[in-house]
């Protein structure tokens, strides 16, 4: 059996886990009591290392559930938490109990938070109130509000461009906001990607586009997108997954071009996904089917004979491994930036944090 | 964007520059000054050579100060007089020494504006404060309180002006000192002034204490009267006790209905979740604490209280015991493998 480090979050059901960008042995978990339906939240900061494997180094309580967290990129001791009351709270490991800043403008649950990894001076939050807000850690009021219009489960800064913000929403669309554009009627919205649409038919072809395994791909019905992430090596590639159990990758330069890859296998909705920081075609996903799976997006696979000259083929991703230890919904997963690559932390509603090496799955 | 930033110029733009020039009195006074084009600063100009606008301004500065007239509160507030309360009234020689520094051009280089500034700031200040501030304040306050403070306001007694001035504001100390010294000269020794100020302060404190006692008693009496009148009015015109009780019942019913509706919505959502996973025969799903809780919610056995799940019948808090693989008997096969490759796992090169 593969070695798995384990920690518990007693009384709180985790929603998100993130490795520190500063320390390879520190990670944080945002958790909520009563599965986030009612009650308060707790932020756990965990340390890895001997003698006990993982231990809780610190925790912070909030009056409402916690749904996401982001480590500060500019201060190794600070992290922001998205709360059920719509507030974003900034905690400092050097300050006990209370947050050092509270950012409260969202009218409904704040569901994701992401720190700008390049300029490091701002972070964004998305909410069920249908907005994305840009914040500075030193100002209690938001710097800018980007309207989305539907429940926005996930918002991310591009890791390649500090002005590019993407979000995934319940209307089955991925939106891109470019802050370099003037504020027009679209409020910096530059790209709208319908995640459910198939690629447009090629001229002269009949029938739906084909997957690389030869089956037709007619697209799917619109469904809520719960998570998305930018590829760390290609600045135009992002992946999204959600209620339709499928992960798709898109090229933002061709928003109407349909998915580049389709990755199927999860038996329930995909709750969280993350591209590997160490390989351009590997991603990991956590799902309501209680599994965490490692995938190859299929771009490196040779096309079958006969399809190589044919354009418009959608790659099919393959499952490379499955972590099946969670006994409740798996809700969060993150890659460790340090070391040989492959160390992964996952959390689930079974009140457990599991740290494991994805390589042990890949070797099987 | 400014026009000057938009590419090459043309004749029309030059004409626009002429017509746009500020022709107000303020600009005229500086632009038309004799030294304006000679490279000199307006600070170093000779007042004897000033033009008509400058002369008029000098006359205005040197003329009688408007707030010297009693019964005018507004000039006190907006005119130049309050300035000397805020400017530190240092000794003239210190101020002059500070002004006579290389950074400011020095007294030797700019004798006129420095002496003018000193005269305006230092010589005129204390006299104005001592002779005019207190009466002006007193008359101003007496003139305004009937409209400003409205109902329930009691006019000040004979000690009112002093009492008001004694009130701890930023202006209190200099004005009270000045008021106390109103009958004496402003060149009195500082020690005497302080002693006299202490005496006056204690006297003011006494007066204030008397005023507070009277005022508080009066306020309490008025409050009691008002409450009595209010109760009387409510007895005559207000809702009856039955109506109040009925309203309270309605509110409670409404809250109860809202709570029931919320419980019903939650039960329906739980039922939806259960129906979504019903066809999924998996050991973990069958033993899931969350799904068991959803089943109890769907069956209306468990409802949401303010901060937790409670039993619908007993009202006791429901303890959620999360089951996991580490519990004995969780797995049907104790040695089952949990971490596995996928069905179609592809080894990574």
From TrEMBL, chain A:
GO terms for molecular function: peroxisome matrix targeting signal-2 binding. GO terms for biological process: protein import into peroxisome matrix. GO terms for cellular component: cytosol; peroxisomal matrix. It comes from Cladorrhinum samala. The keyword Transport applies. Keywords: Cytoplasm, Peroxisome, Protein transport, Transport, WD repeat. WD repeats lie at residues 103-145, 263-296. Signal peptide: none annotated. PROSITE patterns: WD_REPEATS_2 (PS50082), WD_REPEATS_REGION (PS50294). It is found in: Cytoplasm, Cytosol; Peroxisome matrix. The keyword Protein transport applies. Belongs to the WD repeat peroxin-7 family. This is Peroxin-7. InterPro entries: PEX7, WD40/YVTN_repeat-like_dom_sf, WD40_repeat_dom_sf, WD40_rpt. Residues 196-217 are annotated as: Disordered. It comes from the Eukaryota.
UniProtKB/TrEMBL annotation, chain B:
Residues 34-64, 324-349 are annotated as: Disordered. It comes from the Eukaryota. This is PEX20 peroxisomal biogenesis factor 20. It comes from Cladorrhinum samala.
